[in-house]
Amino acid sequence: MPQDLLSPPELSQLLAPQAEAVCRHYLSAGKKSGNSWIVGNLFNEPGRSLTVCIKGNASRLGRWTDHSTGEYGDLLDLIRHNRGYRSLGPAMAEARRFLGIAHPSRPRPAKPGGPQAPA
Q: Which CATH number do you get for residue 49?
C-alpha cells in the first residue's frame, strides 16, 4: 500500500508487532512484566498505573490502559499523548519516523505550460 494512504488504524497495526520497542523508546522508565510493559503513566513517570500489552494475543498487542485515569488506546494514541500532540497528524509522522517509513511526498502542482501527463 502506498505510504501516503496509511490510515491511523493501519499505522497502529504496523506499530503493534513493535510494541515492546515502542515502550522501550517512549516509556523507558517502565519495565517488562510478563506480557506487559508497566510504567506510571503516558508521560513516562515511574509507577505501575499504565500497562501496555507487548506479547500474546495479536488483537491486544500495543493496547494500553492507564488504570489510574481510565484512559486507554493503541500505540498511536500512546505516542500522541507521550509527545503532547493535540492531533493525530504529528503522531502519525512520529510513528512513521519510528518505523523508518519516509514521510509521504505531496504531489506538486503542474507548472503552467509544462509537459502534460499522458491521457
A: 3.90.580.10
Cell of 26: 517512549
pTM for the full model?
Answer: 0.82
**Exposure string over 52-83, b if 16+ CB within 10 A, otherwise e:** bbbeeeeeebbbbbbeeeeeebbbbbbbbbbe
pLDDT tens across 6-48, in order? 899 999 999 999 999 999 999 999 999 999 999 999 999 999 9
The neighbouring-strand residues paired with 64 are 52, 73
Domain coverage including residue 54:
3-99
Would residue 70 be called left, alpha or beta, if left means φ above 0 and alpha means ψ between -120 and 50 degrees? left
Distance, in Å, from the CA atom of 1 to the CA atom of 10, rounded to the nearest integer, reads 10
Nearest alpha carbon to residue 21 among 59, 78, 66: 78
